Amino acid sequence: MKFRTLGAVAIAAVVAVLIRAIYFTPIEALQGAAQKILYVHAPSAWVAFLAFGLVAVASALYLWLRDPRLDYFAESSAEIGLVFTTAVLLTGPLWGKPIWGTYWTWDARLTLTLFLWFVYVGYVILRGAVDDRDMRARYSAVIGILGAALIPFIHLSVYLFRTLHPMPVLMKPSSPSMPPEMTITLVSAFLAFTVLYVWLLRERYQLALDRAAASVVEYDR
Amino acid sequence: MSPDSVMRGGSTRDATAREGATRRHPTVLRAALTIARKDLRIEWRTRSAFLSAVAFSVLALTLFFFAWDPTAVASIDLAPGVLWVTFTFAGLLGLHRSFGGEQPTRAIDALLAAPVSREAVFLGKGLANLVFVLALQMVTLPATAILYNIPLGEVAAPLALVVALASIGLVTVGTLFSAMAVNTRLAELLLPLLALPFFVPIVISAGQATALLLAGRPVGDAAMFLRLLGTFDIVAAVVCTLMYPSLIEQ
């Protein structure tokens, strides 16, 4: 029941933010309507990084405490992070084509996101390829930690390529260089997507618990 | 003769005082060297993995040449990228053998039951892989110089540094993933899938550094990439050595 409430709140919040973004937020002067994809693109990227960060934390805690629930948490967060990374990688080119004139460019952040996507695709495939539950948990915890450790290295190595990506406009040291209406929409989008993440995480975590319980029942028979 | 003295190749220097008391286990480094020697001896008997990796490298170098129009792209611009991509894939061939070779007879179980730390097993495997990869480069580099007609000899000293740094990083991460991949249902299919994203910083840095050196730029211009490779090596060595025991413990 609690899940339903949270789910309803999450979906309502995302829908409300999208409606606000489409109808009640001014159109950007230079980019036109295309800029509105920002309100999906940036929050998805935030959720993806949040999700992968929590995978690393849960993985490290798992190797320390060996509580299988931490493994289920990491598994759930990794899958959701992968979904949101996919959303980032799909919305990015849609925005890039009209504004940059190209779907894809080997810019630092695009490249980083793409390789992170590959790391967690590997994570999910690895989980599917190990039968023993403890071994699966340990192996994926190692990938979860190494994946986070890899981020600065990929970022540094691709940073030397000239970057097209806009510098941060919201969290930069000086005040945000966006009209207040846009800022409010973007901040609410971040909040709404975070609630969506929490809801999906709880649902997926419950599924992992149910699966674990079901496999115990199977062994008992 | 005690197992200790066998490990040390017959030396009885340290063993005398402790005979009969608690037996001293070999130090991590000594055990690692013994394990590396074992792996290299096995490889030396057949040389099958090494020869196939060499054949693969030269084959890949020739194939890559036809992927570009040689009249449009100068081979000196092409060579660094081709060299490092080939190196990465050929390295994967050897890395799979590292733990894959132990698999059919479950020889790894005996190795893990031996009175040496897991870190020593990892370091030993890594050292053997490092020798394998460096030996491979001794063939691939001259082959690249000849086939692509580029003066690699003129930048031999700084290039050796790039090769050493890149090889250490590749081998450290690759050895850890090889230990994982062999125990999965996908085995050798999973190794490149897991390892290649982690090789991205290596391929980019080593490729860029090589390109700068070949363009006649001073070593200082490539320093940033060399530092990045060095940092990657240190972090990878520490993290992977710490992680390896948690792969096997029950």
List keywords for this structure.
heterodimer, A: 221 residues, mainly alpha, 6 helices, 0% strand, B: 250 residues, 74% helix
Molecular structure report:
The complex is a heterodimer of chains A (221) and B (250). Chain A is mainly alpha-helical. Chain A is built from six helices and no strands. In chain A, helix 3 packs parallel to helix 5. The longest helix of chain A is centred in the C-terminal third of the chain and has 41 residues, at 180-220. With 250 residues, chain B is mainly alpha-helical. Chain B has one domain (26-248). Chain B has helices at 3-7, 15-18, 28-46, 48-65, 75-100, 107-113, 118-147, 156-181, 190-214, 223-248. The longest helix of chain B is centred in the middle third of the chain and has 30 residues, at 118-147. The radius of gyration of chain B is 20 Å and the shape is globular. Chain B starts with a helix and ends with a helix. Residues 1-21 of chain B have low confidence and may be disordered. The interface between A and B is medium-sized, with 29 and 31 residues.
Protein topology:
The complex is a heterodimer of chains A (221) and B (250).
Chain A: H1 2-23, H2 38-65, H3 68-100, H4 108-129, H5 133-159, H6 180-220
Chain B: H1 3-7, H2 15-18, H3 28-46, H4 48-65, H5 75-100, H6 107-113, H7 118-147, H8 156-181, H9 190-214, H10 223-248
Helix pairs in contact in B: 3-7, 4-5, 4-7, 5-7, 5-8, 5-9, 7-8, 7-10, 8-9, 8-10, 9-10
**Strand-residue fraction of chain A?**
under 5%
Biggest pleated-sheet summary of chain B: none
The level of helicity of chain B is: over 70%
Number of helices of chain B: 10
Give the class of chain B from helix and strand content and strand pairing.
Answer: mainly alpha
Regions with little confidence, pLDDT below 50 for 5+ residues of chain B: 1-21
| Spatial separation of the terminal alpha carbons of chain B | 33 Å
Major beta-sheet overview of chain A: none
The tally of strands of chain A reads 0
Percent range for β-strand residues of chain B: under 5%
Distance between the termini of chain A: 31 Å
Average pLDDT rating of chain A: 87
Order of helices and strands of chain A: HHHHHH
Q: If interface size is counted as residues with C-beta under 8 Å from the partner's C-beta, which chains form the largest one? A: A-B, 29 and 31 residues
* Shape by Cα distribution of chain B: globular
Radius of gyration of chain A: 19 Å
